[in-house]
């Protein structure tokens, strides 16, 4: 038996454990800013919808209920400005991480094919390429890649870890290049609702895709937008042919979103108030941490959107991690996201107001 796990990168979070222990020894406790996991409550209307659908004895479908697809269509049109969305342009997934990890396999990619993603990126794009035996390739500008063997191009705007947003004209240029070369574009837009100094644009916006979804798919998640990471609620939208194929495969694989989660997703997509409230919480935490880090001698780059500050003291990231751990603050080293991040740390602002305040005090010069 050949171990598939041997193809995968070493799970990097183990390397952070000693620093976590140091931070946890702080007399006032750890401030963990190393992961982007929501900490605020699930909105009441979403919990009520989940509970209201608790009596769901039958199997759900992979494609989801028509009501779920209607809710997604409504959101795509209203929030992203997408036009002429049909149900065939929509596919629910069980949180977006599983989609990212298994997409290359489900697209039938393998040895000889290439999957490309940003030089600094969420590690699961590489995992997905390696799971199916395709070659992972990083880029600074995707249009400089050799398209010959390139089958799947990942975009991620706003970016994890840098918070960078791709301007609309960049997206237009990249989508045109990919279409010209027959390269499928998957655009991971799970932080789209979290723009601070930039307004993220979707690949499904008519100005970018020209009103046709051919060769483009957007990935969206409710984990960050609606504090639903624990529910596993996400969807993809775009090219009907690609999604039709994925639907067939995912039906055979039993990749169904739980019925109560489908009901909760409908409620969450139909409400903007909780999104606004959650944004306000994050905006305050972001401003406080940003100021405290800058006063402490950090420089912040990009970070115009998402849930992270991309920060450097112009030293190796592990030195910075060690320094902050002594103050009881845990952050993620930039090299978790690619070698190019080796002089940065990623500081998540997904911590309670009380913990953010504690971090701000500890960072005071
Ligand atoms: C860029 C990016 N894509 C996808 C995900 C996965 O999110 P989820 O599986 O909760 O939808 C994350 C999670 O942090 C992420 O940062």
Automatic annotation (TrEMBL):
Cited Gene3D superfamilies: Aspartate Aminotransferase, domain 1, Type I PLP-dependent aspartate aminotransferase-like (Major domain)
Keywords per UniProt: Aminotransferase, Transferase
InterPro entries: Aminotransferase_I/II_large (IPR004839), LL-DAP_aminotransferase (IPR050881), OxyQ (IPR019880), PyrdxlP-dep_Trfase (IPR015424), PyrdxlP-dep_Trfase_major (IPR015421), PyrdxlP-dep_Trfase_small (IPR015422)
Obligatory cofactor(s): pyridoxal 5'-phosphate
Domain of life of the native organism: Bacteria
Enzyme Commission identifier(s): 2.6.1.83
Domain Aminotransferase class I/classII large: 30-363
Enzyme superclass (EC): transferase
GO molecular function: L,L-diaminopimelate aminotransferase activity; pyridoxal phosphate binding
PANTHER family attached to this UniProt entry: AMINO ACID AMINOTRANSFERASE, L-GLUTAMINE--4-(METHYLSULFANYL)-2-OXOBUTANOATE AMINOTRANSFERASE
Protein name: LL-diaminopimelate aminotransferase
Encoding gene (name): dapL
